[in-house]
Protein 1
Amino acid sequence: MRSGPSGSSRRPTAPEPSPSAELVGRVFREESGRALATLIRVTGDFDRAEEAVQDAFVTALERWPVDGLPANPGAWITTTARNRAIDHLRRDRRLVEKAELLGRETAMASDADDVERLVEARDEMTPLQDDRLRLIFTCCHPALPADARVALTLRTLGGLTTPEIARAFLVPEPTLAQRLVRAKRKIRDAGIPYRVPPDHLLADRLDGVLRVLYLVFNEGYAASRGDALVRQELCAEAIRLARVLVTLMPDEPEALGLLALMLLHDARRYAREAEDGSLVLLEDQERGRWDRARIAEGAALVDRALRMGRPGAYQLQAAIAALHDEAARPSDTDWSQIVALYGALAAIEPTPVVELNRAVAIAMAEGPAAGLARMDHLADSGLLDEYLYLHSARADLLRRLGRNDEAATAYKRALTLTTNAAERRFLTGRLAEVTRLN
């Protein structure tokens, strides 16, 4: 092998991606859901629509470096994908009757004149925006399994590839691909309508959509498996999709509340991990590393949502997160107000996990013994026996009370339940601490 002037061996390096390729990738992530929603409406077929949109982006990779960036990349992609879909339908006479084919072509042609105007008019509820809203509700239909809803939402609206989603949720790519295939087949075979639900079903169906987005965010913010504590790509996608939902449904306070909650939690992500990758508890975080712009945006969204006078679980959780984020020091946290908010949350959502969080707040407001009494009651019920955070929270209060033998037992139980390496490092360190002090 030849050596360079310095005597060191030169190794071939992979070429840097061209700015055009990077730009097309960014446009794909931002605009593919919008284009796909329109194409699904006019073709009536997920796979045909995906193929047409992917072809449009391949064409963009070929054309944009030569012709330059179009004035409206999103409209260009949608129009090009529509034209590709028309070509595919014309070539395929086996799947549709000629009359149906001509009818769809007519519908597409009528859309063509309006595509650019619709893409540009993003501050108003337009037919194109209706398409994305329809797609969100279709992907999150209650007839689909929960894991399929998440995968299909990320694939169609998030613009993530099948390998990316498989890596994010640590499942084999063929498994994830089969989930997507089954979900699309279920939509087709069950005749799941591509629409926003009627008013009498909207509240229940919106709740399902919000749960899917929050599940995506939670998996990113506190990864259930793997080495990393935070998977930022999942947090970013959940926040982006929540912004889409808020844009499309600006008068839904729970959509605002969910976006606020995500932003207020995500604002702390840089301070949540130590240099060795282990977890840093909220009270020990360096607050100067928190993202103040996100905190301000999240707090403003909470205020906007609560002023609508329809409080819900996401709004209350966001209000709690805002109280944490707005405290300059841990000692400035208004724990009494947080206890009250958890009480209101428990009235809306009376779950053991909410009661656990209220017990933690009571421990901070009234002392560890008061919080521990409530946690022991939860532990005795057995409802959260397989829940990692019950045992880690109990262990922490027992440690604070100097009951190190019991704390060690609780930490050991928590360690049997975690599959995340960062949490394991943290718990192992605390177990060593209480064992040493014993």
Protein 2
Amino acid sequence: MIHELIHHRRNPTRFHVRGYIEEGTTTTPFDMTALNGLSRYHLAMEALRRAPRLRSSAGDIIQKFEEKLREHREWIREHDEDMPEILNWVWSGGQSARTGD
């Protein structure tokens, strides 16, 4: 499928595909993105790893994001809901991500 999407495009190695992995479990919305490697942390780490000018200085940030994902896994296993910072996250424009207010 990916070959059809990038056929005849310049530099096809610049494309990186992510998708949904069905595990047959019920979990929170953020945990589903984390389990599928699609969370904000995963995507930011991937971008940092692929940006040549940032690669040398990205290690500390990537480590912080990996720790945040470990913290998330522990939290969700204990509380069965996303961490408060995820649940209460607000768009910088002042709109709540949860309610759209």
Protein 3
Amino acid sequence: MDLIYAILSGLIPPLIWLFFWTREDAHPEPRMLLFACFIGGALAVVCSGIGENIVGSMVFNEQNRYIVWAAVEEILKFIAVFTIALNRPENDEPIDAMIYCITVALGFAAIENTLFILGQLNLGGLAVGFMAGNMRFIGPTLLHTISSAMVGFSFGYVFYHGRIVKLIAVTIGLAAAITAHALFNLSILNAGPIDTLKIFGLIWFAVVVLIALFEEIKAVHPVKSVQSVIGAI
């Protein structure tokens, strides 16, 4: 029973968020490709667990360990989305990269949440597991979404540029994602209840920013892209 509850609690919230974010795309992506991205994100959790265990045995400073863990998760999520979707012909407009990156992130969050809630159920029963599920819906699930969306936005914003510009943009986006993830990890390390509420408030603010970024990416067109290069020169 606990396992079923943990799976449903871990899976349903990311699926709700996935439905919400995919509505931003006027030209919906193929469902099988979105499904592959979701599963890719879920499988990245396994690789992440292995990588984080290795890091844990090599990095003894707790703060440094959390920073490296953030980097491991963000890099693995990016590898998953790049392998599955970003180099496919279906990725044919700027907004697509954001959708695919978010889908991978939500697949990652679904499995991570399931494992976390299952652990809480074993420790404190249904009430603790229920609270843990609600907190994961607000906190880490949105964190994964926002951090991966940074990478997707970076890729999509330079969609009509060459490979070098895309590489630079993705590098910047990935660095921003790792920084945001690491700051979240460090901020909750010794946070009290009030501090935690403030952190979650910032995450909700970031969601509002993410909605604005979706509107910005929708406005990216080849002409705008060329004009931005001329303006930069």
Protein 4
Amino acid sequence: MLSSTRLAPATVVPGLIAGLVGAATIDVYLLGVFVAAAHLFTLGRFFSFIATGAIGKSAYGEPESAWLGLAIHVAVSLAWGVGYAYAASRAPQLNARPITSGIVFGIVVMIAMQLVEVAANIYTLPNTFVLLNEFVAHTLFFGIPVAWIVAARSHAAS
């Protein structure tokens, strides 16, 4: 059995890398859909929405809240990445099928983040367009990249 000091870098580093890549890929997708294509948000309002989970709806009136939202988003993505890497270190079968594992992981993340929005009282019932895009974003542009990177880093370490 590996000692906890040897296990930590093998779990944390791939998780941080995967979380960072997952944050970037999901943001590129969501910004492309909601900001560029659908014109539903501005870039600042997109990240201010994330900040509303921490400081409430007043985030929409404060331009600095976009930076807070970006920081929160990256921190949460890093935490999800490390969490997935930890789970994959305990259940190696996750690394054997990164696409399937990533899709399931993305669904778990999507549901958890919707629950966070409900708890923060910023949840609005999504329409079909938003729900479909949330599903695509969390599975294809977050879950799969995180699972793929963790699996690749795991195989490289072996």
